[in-house]
Amino acid sequence: MIYLFFILTAVFSILTYSIRRRSVSHILVFLYVILMIGLGINLWPQAGLQLNEYFFSDRLGLIFYFILILVSLFSAIHYVKFVEDRNVKITDVALHNAGTIFFTGAMVGVLFTSHFGVLWAFMEATTLGASILIYHDRNQDALEATWKYLYVCSIGIAIAFAGVLFLGFAAQQVGHVDFTFSAIKREANQLNTVWLKACFLLVVTGFSVKMGLVPLFNVDIDAKDASPSQVGASLSSVLMNSGFIAIYRFYEAFSGTSLLPWMNKLLMIVGLLSLFFAAVYILRVKNVKRMFAYSSMEHASLVMIAFSCGGLGYFAAILHLVMHSLVKSSLFFQVSQMHRIFDSKLDEKIGSYLRVNPLGGLVMLLGFLSIIAMPPSGMLISELYMFQALVAKNYWWIALIVLLLVLIIIYGLAIKMLGIIFLKKSTASINMHGASPYESIMQLVLIVIVFYIGLFRPPFIVDTILLAIKTLPS
């Protein structure tokens, strides 16, 4: 089934690019989402099982896969309105939709492959797919962001490939050539730790470009700003999840070795540095899309910090990624509507949004409360778990640093978001034809899911995450 899915991905992508009718192009994307749902139904009963030589039905992959389906569906719906509003040329629509299918299929490969080499290949494919989407508007900013993304991501993927090569050198020294996750994990204690350290360092450095972390985070910010908002939603949610799972695969494979404390320290350093840069930049930024991009960097940082603590931190990191994907997608979707109404992405030209567009303003308000972890947001739960994990490790001073940086970020977000939502600004020009209630209702659905998780902590979600991380050391 998985091979058939990738064959159909290629077929759908080619057809979508070849057929130059807007309605047919959009329909093909929706049919592809239905195909994804079918694959999910097929894989769920096989959770935890190996499908073939290169793929498996992994529980963590399934968690992120169903988020990918949801975000892809909502993104496709929003793009229909985007095309209608801007009267986008059919050639651009066809290329964008074909790129969307290719990009999504590549992320599916990242989530379900059980082979390090194939993982790297699919991650490289996400770069090509994302570049097509970033260049959508065909202007100077989009061109510059696309070339930056291609160039820096290619460097990052090349660095990660060097890490894969080092893992290969280590495996060859003991006469082991099987590059599957399970085989490497089984033999990891026999592998040279120097090669493994070099591998993990290069992998974290290279794939940081997908999560928006230090050191290769700048290109991710530019890409989210220059691309359509629905593309920014994907880059801030499902692609971030793909970047995390790529790092997670190496971490899990090496977690049974003496490298575990060293890997945790590395992830902690990456998380703290990224959180510091997010705090610095979010105070200065005036562009709403860039503000949300730096907010995504903040939450990716918190995920790394939580994950580096082990134990409860593993659970907190994955739960946080799940809820961040939903909230940040809804906020980026809403930015598209806000841009149509105010014809600007600058916070100084957007005001009284709750009065101008009540449903859209409610999305912004609830989304803002969610990303700063205010009750009843489920993100409060995951962040409390993170601090609990830090305290359990006696990382009191790190917890204080994280708390200080998070408070700085909350302050930076609050002065901008509250001004956008409530404050009337004389520079704002308003076009109410840009308002779209049905779009805002879909965004509210995503945020309500996050509130539901925070209030009730449904056993189904909790148990699935616990099963996904049970192979990690306690």
Encode the helix/strand succession as letters. Answer: HHEEHHHHHHHHHHHHHHHHHH
Rg of Cα set: 21 Å
The tally of beta strands, per DSSP, is 2
Strand order of the largest sheet: 1-2
Task: Please provide a written account of the structure.
The chain has 474 residues and is an all-alpha fold. The chain has a domain at 272-474. Helices cover 78% and strands 1% of the residues. The chain has 20 helices and two strands. A two-stranded antiparallel sheet has the order 1-2. It is globular. The model has no long low-confidence stretch (mean pLDDT 94).
Write the layout of secondary structure elements.
Elements: H1 2-18, H2 22-43, E1 49-50, E2 56-57, H3 59-86, H4 90-112, H5 116-134, H6 140-173, H7 181-187, H8 193-211, H9 218-226, H10 229-236, H11 238-254, H12 260-284, H13 288-308, H14 312-342, H15 353-356, H16 358-371, H17 378-392, H18 396-422, H19 437-456, H20 459-468
Antiparallel strand pairs: 1-2
Helix pairs in contact: 1-2, 1-4, 2-3, 2-4, 3-4, 3-10, 3-11, 3-14, 4-5, 5-6, 5-11, 6-8, 6-9, 7-11, 8-11, 8-12, 9-10, 9-13, 10-14, 12-13, 12-18, 13-14, 13-17, 13-18, 14-16, 14-17, 14-19, 16-18, 16-19, 17-19
